[in-house]
Design goal:
The radius of gyration is 27 Å and the shape is globular. Strands 1, 2, 3, 4, 5 and 6 form a 6-stranded antiparallel sheet that branches. It is α+β, with helices and mostly antiparallel strands and about 400 residues long. The protein is built from 18 helices and 6 strands. The termini are far apart. Helix 2 crosses helix 9 and helix 3 runs antiparallel to helix 4.
Length: about 400
């Protein structure tokens, strides 16, 4: 995966700097998470105009509020204050534009970007940047699009605009590797702001502007905290610099990823950021449905069936699993224990059984799945077995409790 895609995939919460920051001022650390995820949502909805406009207005409010709050922290939280002042001093133009945009939104004037659009044949350079080989339209200046076109999602616009290109430039199976049709959108806003006592009028690409603001504010605060804490910080990149990229450009492969997997041998995932998230959410949903149906089919029918499973898994180590199905059953057993324990008399169980054990087991199971199961190859057998032992201790406590309740 391209570096910027990696950096945009998940907030680096386990990084020592952010862990220390959360200890020092949890509210500021949380606000940085909000900034980070807002930037991702802005990119996610780039090709959905209604949602994109809403995210633009929200972004202006969130960034300006964070800056304004930081400016009042001198003597209270100096690293937060210093980081904000550093951003303002080194990004004065951006700060003045941000204030002007925020002033508009505070007076109930929604920012409504103008659209610029081009479409045609693209060559994919890597997972996040492309070249437009043959194009129509102009994505550098605002287009006089009808209002209904302006509000249409790119996937809807796609077939309306690209039928002729499909007939002229592309064969059905896309034999030219890395080449497919697509469209690029840019969103512009007219701004008037004052800098050095002079009024300036300018048309800005609102997505690029907000992306740079998000990135600059985020990195300024983190660099300031790095100086305060002595923990190194490597700046993250939240701004796509290539002219045609995985945010502003929507390709055929984003519409039909499975076909391009067949034709080109790709991963089967789309490239556009919004499409990636939509695809992964769909995969996660389908997986969850399939797993839940599988678990239901494996649930014990009687108390003895349940106790057999409990006995089977209460001291298990990784070498004890006979196959993948056996291991999967263990994962199901520890993660949805409240399903498996249903054959027992629930009323009696609640009255006499320490129900907190089920919550503890579930919490340990979730951490094990997130930290071990999803990256098995990165961990030693010893590390895995230590985690399994911790889980098994809870299973043994459950067995002990049930022995008292059931008199067995």
């Amino acid at each position: 995966m391209d570096n910027i895609l990696k950096e945009m995939s998940e907030f680096p919460k386990k990084n020592p700097l952010f862990m220390k920051m959360a200890d020092d001022d949890a509210e500021v650390e949380f606000y940085l998470e909000v900034l980070f995820h807002n930037k991702l949502e802005l990119a996610r909805y780039y090709h959905n105009p209604n949602m994109f406009f809403m995210m633009c207005n929200n972004s202006i409010s969130v960034i300006e509020t964070f800056i304004n709050r930081g400016q009042k922290q001198k003597g209270k939280n100096n690293w937060y204050y210093d980081g904000v002042i550093e951003f303002v001093n080194t990004n004065n133009r951006s700060y003045q534009i941000l204030r002007e945009l925020r002033n508009k939104t505070m007076h109930f004037k929604m920012i409504m970007p103008e659209n610029a659009l081009s479409f045609g044949l693209y060559r994919i350079i890597d997972g996040s940047s492309y070249i437009q080989k043959i194009g129509m339209g102009n994505d550098k200046i605002s287009n006089e699009l009808p209002a209904f076109r302006l509000a249409q999602k790119s996937e809807v616009l796609f077939h309306d605009l690209l039928q002729m290109h499909y007939l002229l430039f592309i064969d059905i199976e896309h034999s030219a590797l890395g080449e497919c049709l697509g469209l690029t959108r840019r969103w512009f806003v007219n701004v008037t702001y004052t800098i050095d006592g002079k009024k300036v009028k300018e048309k800005i690409d609102i997505y690029i502007f907000l992306s740079i603001c998000y990135q600059s504010v985020f990195n300024s605060i983190c660099q300031s905290f790095s100086k305060y804490s002595g923990i190194d910080y490597k700046e993250i990149n939240l701004h796509e610099k290539s002219e045609y990229n995985f945010v502003n450009t929507f390709l055929e492969i984003d519409l039909y990823p499975s076909l391009f997997k067949k034709w080109w041998g790709t991963s089967g995932e789309p490239l556009n950021w919004g499409s990636i998230l939509e695809y992964r959410n769909a995969v996660e949903f389908n997986d969850r449905v399939q797993v839940s149906e599988k678990v239901i089919s494996l649930l014990p029918k009687t108390v003895d069936d349940y106790l057999h499973l409990l006995n089977k898994f209460k001291k298990v180590q990784i070498a004890d699993f006979i196959n993948q199905d056996d291991y999967n059953l263990f994962i199901y057993f520890i993660s949805v224990q409240h399903w498996f324990i249903k054959p027992l008399n629930v009323v009696e169980l609640i009255e006499k059984f320490d129900i907190k054990l089920l919550y503890q087991l579930h919490s340990l199971a979730v951490k094990y799945i997130q930290e071990i199961d999803t990256s098995f190859e990165k961990h030693s057998t010893e590390t895995i077995n230590k985690r399994l032992t911790t889980i098994c201790l809870i299973l043994q406590k459950i067995e002990s409790e049930l022995t008292k309740v059931l008199g067995k």
